[in-house]
Amino acid sequence: MALLVVFIIAQFFGPEKNEGDLTSIEPFLVETNPSPQVKGILKETCFDCHSSVTRYPWYSSITPVNYWLDGHIDHGKGHFDVSKWDSYTVKKKDHKLEELIEMVQAKEMPLRSYTWTHSEANLTQEQIKAVIDWAKNVRSNYASQLSSD
């Protein structure tokens, strides 16, 4: 009974939600210019954990699940945060896209735990290729900028 009471009380507490302004991802989208297909893939598979704009599922209000999700989001944004794209140097942007390519090629991103509840985030080989081709193209633009510096 005491455990039930603690569980109920815990529902009134939780981490702050990651619900920023959609405009925070615009600089990233404008600069990297993904095709409509890649933009859709990024929206469905990346932005929830790698931006300030998270679409929360219904179960995200349940403690302790909300803390688990918050940990994933904090970890994801710590590695790659498109909402802070403007603050990154060209070298850092290039490196972040290099990491993105590696993680998507190795099928380490999106995380399996994310695809369990977001089946639309299970990428096909065609989608993986589209994302990698886009990222390589953006990286080539950054490489030319870096070589001219």
Query: How would you state the average pLDDT, rounded?
Result: 87
SSE topology string: HHHHHHHH
Number of strands: 0
Q: Which value, in Å, is the CA radius of gyration?
A: 17 Å
Largest sheet: none
Question: Span between N and C termini?
Answer: 67 Å
Structural class: mainly alpha
Give me the number of helical elements.
8
Low-confidence stretches at least 5 residues in length (pLDDT < 50)? none
Instruction: Please give the domain count.
Output: 1
Shape: elongated
Helix content: 55-70%
Strand content: under 5%
Provide a descriptive summary of the structure in words.
The chain is mainly α and 149 residues long. The protein has one domain (2-148). It is built from 8 helices and no strands. α3 packs across α8. It starts with a helix and ends with a helix.
